Amino acid sequence: MPVSVRSLRGVKFLDDRVANPSYVGLALIGVAMVLIGPWRFDMLWIAVTIGLYVALAATGLLLYTPTLSRQIRVYDRLRRLTRCVRSR
C-alpha cells in the first residue's frame, strides 16, 4: 500500500475518532462556560465566535470529510489498476 494511502487513512481515523469528538466536547464546554460564568450569548464576541465555529464545522463536514473519503477511494482504485497492469 502506498504511503499516501496509509497517511490518508490515518488522517481519516484521527478525524473520525479524535478530532470530531473533541469538537463536540469543546462546544459543550463553551456553552457550559457561558451558562455558568458571567458571560451572555448576546455579547458580540461570543455571537461572532459561535458563528465562526458553526461556519468552520459546516466547512469540515460538507467539504473536508467528503474530499478525504474521495481521495482514499481514488488511491485505492489507482492501486488496484496498477496491480492489474503490472500483472500482465
Search tags:
single chain; 88 residues; mainly alpha; 2 helices
Q: CA-to-CA gap between the ends?
A: 19 Å
How many DSSP E strands?
0
Instruction: State the domain count.
Output: 1
> Which ranges are low-confidence, i.e. pLDDT below 50, for 5 or more consecutive residues?
none
What topology does this entry show?
Elements: H1 3-36, H2 44-87
Helix pairs in contact: 1-2
Description:
There is one protein chain. With 88 residues, the protein is mainly α. It is 89% helix and 0% strand. It is elongated and about 70 Å long. The two termini are 19 Å apart.
Q: How would you summarize this macromolecular structure in one to three sentences?
A:
This protein has 2 helices and no strands. With 88 residues, the chain is mainly α.
